[in-house]
Amino acid sequence: MNDPNGLVYSDGEYHLFYQYYPDSTVWGPMHWGHAVSTDLIHWNHLPIALYPDSLGYIFSGSAVVDLNNTTGFGSKAQPAIVAIFTYHDPVLEKSGSNLFQSQGIAFSLDKGRTWTKYSANPVLKNPGIRDFRDPKMFWNENTKKWNLIMAVYDRVHIYSSPNMKEWTFESEFGMVAGAHGGVWECPDLFPLKAEGAEITKWVMLVSINPGGPNGGSATQYFTGEFDGHRFIPDNTSVKWIDWGRDNYAGVTWSNIPGSDGRRIFIGWMSNWQYANVVPTAVWRSSNTIPRELSLKYQEGQYFLTSIPVREFADLRSKSEALIIKPQSFSGEKEIPSDGISLMQSELLFDFSLSDASVDSLGIILENINKERFIIGYVPALKQFYTDRRAAGNSGFSKVFAGISTAPFIAGNELKIQVLVDASSVELFVNGGKLVMTSIVFPTEKYTRVKLFSNGAEVTLNKAEFYSIERIWP
Ligand code: FRU
To answer: Is 157 in the pocket of ligand 1 (CB under 6 A)?
Structure first.
């Protein structure tokens, strides 16, 4: 699998479709796989939702609930779920034509279980652009129209429509904004209220591949204003939603009830640099933990924070839990983690950094083969990092092993939330101001947690370790 697609909440269910090739663990003719959840944590796999057809493979896209029945596919009493996706025609592509990507729609009247493709597809023909894909559609309450944002080369195009069937080009954004080391893919655009300010901003997410801050695939974002026609950014600087190497093509759920009000994001936990060769069998790739996005304002800038959705906390084991006492340490110090299944755990650390002479500090996850995944912070460099150079198997790719860095100023307090799963480490620092997601393939389970500090003593105010319950029956 790769990108999450068609994220929509409807009738008590979160739908998660995704780029899926059922016949191999290597990317191939794309379908939309499908899973549903009532809590964003426990998922049920459902049959494939969309199959390739004569117009092509089914590439990435989005889904909405057509509450006003603008398409006529359902009724106001029984609104349709409508998906919009990219058709990718491999035959046209091979023929040398530029016209191989177009946008189609499909609808479901039975809670996403079965889908009917619109008979007059494509609804948005290719205008002669090779990279013309990944439509994210949303209802714009201000203009009472649908808007669509999609990726076009290394920028985005915005469209509008009264009915999802006829689309009008509105504007282009991005030529002189953000990062341009590769093509832009999988954009998203949504309003989000800034915390602590009575102001709502529009947030644009745009994945880029390659050109991420630590190599390969990554997702940048912009904040600004959007009037249904044009996106005006607050500034054109690059901001990354996640500084790790394994969070790509992430987008957000539509139709979350107003009473909930969250903006919930999920990303694909891999990187096109090595996605097709990572050493897993039977399956390949998974998603990040769903994350709640918030908009904060600080020092004249709006920025996003991401934290695991609160439902995740219900998975903390009550019997396999450790509260670690306050302590100071220097050099390397093991923190006993007996009884905790580290390979399926949540680890919370709260450090004080009052001593300015600390050169570096951090956390090491280690196994009996002395493989270690290192999480560190270097105050003088204002830099946070993860190091998977010797964390496990990396021979499958020349670029997999390595250090990923992120600019970061912790202040006096450094709080690190670590979610460890069989082959991933997701880090949320200081309330999600900094996020780093990495996949990792230790040859044996990590069984030890160590802290390190160089230069001076560091105080651990508190730590909590939890085994995480299995989500599958
Ligand atoms: C991003 C992407 C999309 C495309 C899909 C194809 O990972 O390349 O742009 O729609 O994957 O699987």
So the answer is: no
